[in-house]
Design brief:
Layout: E1 2-3, H1 5-11, H2 17-26, H3 33-41, H4 49-59, H5 63-66, E2 67-68, H6 71-77
Antiparallel strand pairs: 1-2
Helix pairs in contact: 2-3
Keywords: DNA-binding
GO molecular function, one term: DNA binding
Protein name: DNA-binding transcriptional regulator, XRE family
């Protein structure tokens, strides 16, 4: 995920974290200067949903505007398995739910 707070704020004419912090306080969300700096300059590892709701309200956006999915990053994290020459690709077992039933005659 990529955090997009600064770009969304800039689109609303908010250029400084202190200005954003003041707008959040006016909306009922008191954020420390340190926490605001972290939200403004980096990607938070966690954020409270209540805080996200207030941020979205101030910026007039949705969480999807602030949290940008990066599927290529997810794919890059998957472990790569090296396959030996002549080795066949293993077949994953199929999970069966419920009782084990035989197939009806054709």
């Amino acid at each position: 995920m990529r955090w997009n707070l600064r770009l969304r704020a800039a689109e609303k004419g908010i250029w400084k974290s202190t200005e954003m912090r003041r707008l959040l306080a006016d909306a009922g969300l008191e954020i420390s200067a340190g926490k605001m700096s972290g939200l403004w300059t980096g990607t938070p590892t966690t954020i409270r949903l209540d805080d996200l709701d207030v941020i979205c309200s101030v910026l007039g956006c949705s969480p999807a505007d602030l949290l940008i999915c990066e599927p290529e990053q997810v794919a890059a994290r998957r472990p790569q398995r090296v396959q030996a020459v002549g080795e066949q690709q293993p077949v994953a077992p199929v999970a069966r739910l419920g009782r084990q039933r035989s197939t009806p005659p054709a």
